What we know:
Elements lengths: L1 H17 L6 H114 L1
Amino acid sequence: MYIYVYVYMYIYVYIYIRFGLALNPQTRFPLQREWISMQTELVAVESNNTTVQDGVHEQRGKLAILEQKRVRLASELEREKREIHDTVRTLFICIYIYIYIYIYIYIYIYIYIYIYIYIYICVYICTYIYMYVYMYIHI
Length: 139
């Protein structure tokens, strides 16, 4: 907005001086003073504009760096999620195998105990029958 005002004033003063509308010193000197002050303000505005543009350029550079960092962190996050998923899956497989082995051993031990008891009872009964038959025959 200020630049438009300065351009308008610049054109106005330039035309005023150029066409000799300010030939007498009483109107020319204040106009020249105003012209110099406007040139000074224009230089200040341009300097401020340059400073702002440098700041914008610097901020865009920082934005590009931060965007790359965000992309890198997002890919690292996805990799970590996959690794956690694989670890949990492996853990469940290990638990499943552990439970399977535990049940297998549990069943095996009980079958072994039942077989042992069955054999013991059979031997006991056979011994008892043998003794009964032996005693019956010898009587």
